[in-house]
Amino acid sequence: MIIADPLAALRTDRFLDRRHLWRVFRVSNFYRLILAALLLTAFALDEQSRLFGKQHPSLFLGAALVYMALALTAIAGSYWRWPKLKVQAHWQMLVDLVTLTVMIHASGGLASSLVSLLITAVAASGILLPLSSALLSAALGFFLLTGSWLATYWQAAGASARGDRPTAGWSALLEPLRHNSDDLVRLGVIGAALFIAAGLTYALAERARRGEALARQRTWELLEIAELNQGIIRHLQNGVVVVNRADQIQLLNDTARQLLGCPAARPETALPELSPPLYQRLRAWRAGAVEIPAFRPTEHRPELIPRFTRLSGNQATNVLILLEDSEQAAERLQQIKLAALGRLTAGIAHEIRNPLAAIGHAAQLLQESTGASASDRRLGRIVHENVKRANRIIADVLDLARRDRVRPERLALTPWLETFGQEFRRSLDGTPPEWRQTVEPAAMEVFFDPHQLRQVLWNLCANACQHGAAPGEPARIELCAGMEHGHGRPFLEVRDAGPGVAPENTGKLFEPFFTTRAKGTGLGLYLARELCEANRAHLQYLSVPEGGSRFRITFAPTSLATEMD
Q1: Is the overall model pTM greater than 0.90, yes or no?
Q2: I want to staple 529 with a disulfide (CB 3.0 to 4.6 A). Which of 133, 134, 214, 539 is the partner?
Q3: Residues contacting residue 442 through CB under 8 Å, at least 6 positions apart
Q4: What's the pLDDT at 171?
Q5: DSSP for 44-106?
Q6: Which has the closest alpha carbon to 178: 202, 201, 157?
Q7: Rounded CA gap, 446 and 489, in Å?
């Protein structure tokens, strides 16, 4: 698994580790505070038998109070986090060893039940401290116990031997070792227990830390995998719906919400409530139907093709539903066919161009020949004009074959249309048309290949000049751009004041080779629509009741243009 930001993940892990260690240190100090309170309570309530502090009550009381005060100070330091954790942990280890040893000495020495508390304190030091410090605490605890035992023995021996011969030198120091073998065995067992507790606790704590770090790493990986899967599912072009055995929605990606028209749908929504037609197809699939028909979620939405499959593993009872827009599927199929047809026609066009060039050259020579009759020149002129028409058809076919060479750009529509209008009007022979253009908002931008947009508008404006003029009047062309309400898609309309298109011909306008002019090729509007489709736009003819024609180019949405950019 590749982590997107390993340094950030490492910093987060370290922060979590430090916070966890501070929490452990704070809990251990609350334990010390409670332990000191219990010892003081037992000392205060047990004044007769004196289970704790029997030998030196005042020393025990003072040590317990100091222990409680230092525990409170350590708790405050854990919240302030000053000084550093390692310093506080070492200081707390030293406090535990000294104060507990003093209380053990005041309660009878090695025979006191408080020795187990010293073993517990040494074991606790192995949780936060490194192994060397934990073993050092065990050694220090052993030496403190040994010193306490020697001090107790020498004090007792001095009291009994006072008045007798004085003892001095190394013999007095070694005297306890010769006459207290039981205490030596007990001291050795306690020392071994201290070292075992320190080493074992450190090993268990280290193993727990490694297990926690591994679990945290696995958690991060699972979270990243889940986030990656959600991102993939969210950006799929097909709609994805997952339903459980009870027909409740478990997963619904953004594309499915858009196709089904349910932007506010939430998980655990019942499928019959979300889309009754889809629920009917699901029931038919579960009943064993082989062919599942397409359906429309609502009247104004495109048909959807559903595909059903059952998930495996622990989710075997869930059903995965893939929704595909039938129009997009048909468009992809059409694009594949057009690409293949474009390559074929491009090859044929190149092959036809060479003999056409020879025929045109021969016809031109026939027209210029001095020995040719008038009828021969007229025939030559007819041949030359039809060769030019065939060349125009070949040029249009080649442009159609190159429709996949799209280089869309962001275009500020107002200055671009002004430049286009000046260029178009300068190229015309005769009376120029009345020209008007409006763009609202004025700063509107579109996403289109500028060369192909010029080709589309040139064709539409040329048609407006030829068919959009009232008898005896110059042609009037109006370019009007704006934003569609509710969709946020920019559009550009080319309007004229002519008689318009006959109702019986509106359905054939964009068919290839359909024309009402004797010398037309019938490929202009077809090529214009194909170029618009290649730029994620749409060209359509809109009827005008009061007369005239209106062609509208609906450009790609602004959000889609940003993604393409």
Answers
A1: no
A2: 539
A3: 414
A4: 58
A5: HH-TTT-SSSSS-HHHHHHHHHHHHHHHHHHHHHHHHT-S-HHHHHHHHHHHHHHHHHHHHHH
A6: 157
A7: 9
**Which of left, alpha, beta for 261 (phi over 0: left; psi -120 to 50: alpha)?**
left
Tokens found for residue 11? 């910093």
* Residue 10 contacts residue 49 (beta carbons within 8 Å): no
Closest C-alpha to 552, from 538, 562, 535: 538
- Does residue 257 surpass a pLDDT of 50? yes
Cβ 264 vs Cβ 258: under 8 Å: no
- Please state, in angstroms and rounded to a whole number, the distance separating the CA atoms of residues 305 and 284: 14
Q: What is the pLDDT of residue 485?
A: 74
Hey, what amino acid is at 290? V
Q: Retrieve residue 519's tokens.
A: 């010398």
User: What pLDDT, in 10s, does the model give residues 95-146?
Assistant: 999 999 999 999 888 888 899 999 999 999 888 899 999 999 999 999 999 9
Is the previous residue joined to 499 through a cis bond, with omega within 30 degrees of 0? Answer: no
| Whether the Cβ atoms of residue 207 and residue 223 lie closer than 8 Å to each other | no
* pLDDT more than 70, % of the chain: 83
Q: Both ends of the chain: CA-CA distance in Å?
A: 30
SS3 label, residue 409: strand
Q: What average pLDDT does this structure show over 373-402?
A: 73
Q: What is the pLDDT of residues 199-223, one digit of tens each?
A: 999 999 999 889 988 988 898 898 8
- Return the amino acid letter for 89: A
Greatest mean pLDDT among 33-42, 178-187, 307-316 lies in: 33-42
State which fold the 409-564 domain adopts: Heat Shock Protein 90 (3.30.565)
Q: Where are the beta strands (DSSP E) in 154-303?
A: 239-243, 249-252
Q: Report the alpha-carbon distance of residue 10 to residue 217 in Å, rounded.
A: 10
The confidence score (pLDDT) of residue 399 equals: 65
Q: Which amino acid is at 104?
A: I
Task: Specify the residue for token string 């790493």.
Answer: 217
- The DSSP code sequence of 438-486 is EESSTT-EEEE-HHHHHHHHHHHHHHHHHHS--TTS--EEEEEEEE-TT
Pick the CATH number of 238-328 from 3.30.450.20, 3.40.50.300, 2.60.200.20, 3.40.190.10: 3.30.450.20
